[in-house]
Design goal:
Elements (H helix, E strand, L loop, with lengths): L1 H7 L6 H7 L11 H22 L5 H11 L2 H10 L10 H5 L6 H19 L1 H12 L2 H7 L4 H11 L6 E8 L6 E8 L2 E8 L2 H17 L3
Antiparallel strand pairs: 1-2, 2-3
């Protein structure tokens, strides 16, 4: 894990934080899900702060769209691959046999967990520095994301004078190592569409895609 810490630019005071962040639920050991939960919030705040400081002339909608592109599963998994994060993951034999070390959802979740581990180990300034280093080239990272249906839906609603879409996870099923999530997207307080995926982010993207089809009349 020394190489990973070097790649992150952060040396853990307590390496057990990093080990926990790299432990997938399929191991049946104490896993990284709680850290993933925390990391999602830490990442969103730090990226929001970075964009707010970097782009003083952008309005709220543009900042929100840029943030969505940076914290999406595609971007997080790309950053995880750049750190070779997959090789350090601890996972069950079955998950590994099905290519778990390369699954975007697993890499993205682990990336969030690692950032949370930095926060728990070193505090806000430590994780802020790591996130700024990883996400500073936001234009290039945004180009990695490919089609981002959540951003496209947001642009559509703004163009038509509607409120920003709101997402909610309404159901989940399956074992810990193979969860399925159902997300619902609402606009103006009205449910528009649902979508499923093997991560919360993927389910939200699927819901956004379905909503776009509904709005455009090609569902």
């Amino acid at each position: 894990m020394q190489r990973l810490q070097q790649a992150l630019g952060y040396a853990f005071r307590d390496p057990s934080h990093l080990r926990l962040a790299l432990t997938h639920p399929s191991t049946k050991l104490p896993d990284n899900q709680r850290l993933e939960f925390l990391g999602d919030a830490v990442l969103e705040f730090c990226v929001s702060d970075m964009l707010y400081q970097k782009y003083p002339s952008l309005h709220e909608g543009e900042l929100t769209a840029r943030r969505a592109a940076l914290v999406c599963e595609r971007t997080l998994s790309a950053i995880a691959r750049s750190l070779d994060l997959g090789r350090y993951l601890l996972m069950g034999h079955g998950e590994e046999q099905t290519g778990g070390r390369e699954k975007p959802s697993i890499l993205a979740d682990a990336m969030e967990a690692v950032l949370a581990a930095v926060y728990v180990d070193g505090g806000y300034e430590a994780v802020r520095g790591v996130i700024r280093a990883l996400f500073q080239d936001d234009e290039r990272l945004t180009a990695w994301r490919g089609q981002d249906d959540k951003s496209a839906l947001q642009e559509y609603t703004q163009a038509h004078g509607l409120d920003l879409p709101a997402y909610e996870i309404v159901a989940q099923s399956g074992p810990d190592h193979d969860r399925r999530f159902t997300a619902r997207v609402s606009v103006q307080g009205r449910p528009v569409a649902t979508g499923e995926g093997n991560s919360k982010k993927a389910a939200e993207q699927a819901a956004a895609k379905a909503a776009l089809k509904a709005y455009r009349g090609d569902a």
